[in-house]
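One-letter codes give the sequence; the fold follows as tokens. Both lines appear below.
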Amino acid sequence: MWVSRSRWIICEFLHRSYNRCTHIDSKLSQAIRADTVCIRDALPTLQASIVAIEDTQNLQQHHAIMEWLSPTDFPAQQHDIISRRQEGTGQWFLNSPEFKRWIQGSDKTLFCPGIPGAGKTMMAAITIDHLCRSARSNDVEVAYLFCNYKAQADQSVVSMLAALLRQLVQSGRPDNVATVTTIYEHCLKGRGRPSLDDIFRTLQSTCANYAVVYVVVDALDECADTDGARSRLIDKLRELQARFVEVRLMCTSRFIPEIMQKFCSDSRLEVRAREEDVKRFVADQIPRLPNCIRRDNELRCAVQSKIVEAVDGM
């Protein structure tokens, strides 16, 4: 009797223990399933956050490499210059046969000389704006330089070509960025400077990725000519053209004999302040004139004519 009672107690204990374990296991399984669902629901957000962090880090690295390559912000200069353009001016330049042959014809180089004050820089900016609006695409790129005598210390051949290279890789095309990143890594992550050969070789490989590359260089006469730097810049741009047929080069300058000699066999379009441009500019300034002139149509026309006459191409 005692043995039977003991067996019953043991069996009951085991049964209750089993039920309790089964209940615990069930709750644990439910908790695990709930956690799994929660993790699964949160996974897309977590993945998106990781991608966002990686994108930010890549963007920061890209910006650092671009600044290391060339700190000169020529696009900002372009924006500043073109913002001062009088609406409609410079159309004669864009409509000229010489410009049309350069932009899409047989002339690969266009040399645009002009006297001081003729508007060469504005015409270069108008050209750049026109190209960026109508020609730039995945296969066509535009790069430009604004030379300035006040910044001659920063206008070495290497720095100028590096500025062109920065603009060509700024779009972020992986194949272009990779080549510049290689130079950056080779220079100990920006602690050194790239050589002329490094820059020019990378510039060549970058140009090869486009069907057409337009290069506009304004005010060559203001580029430093210490140790023949200006001549070497022109020669390097010529070499780039020789290697890639569709590198189209446009340069502006004052009438400097040494520079003109470099472009003696190229198409030429002189920059002058055209009458129609001056008239547009003066017409826009009429509201600033005294009331006595603004109210008198004959006097207003006389003022415009005298100003146009006095400008004489400047």
Observations:
- DSSP finds 13 helices and five strands in the chain.
- The beta strands are 109-113, 140-146, 212-218, 247-253, 267-268.
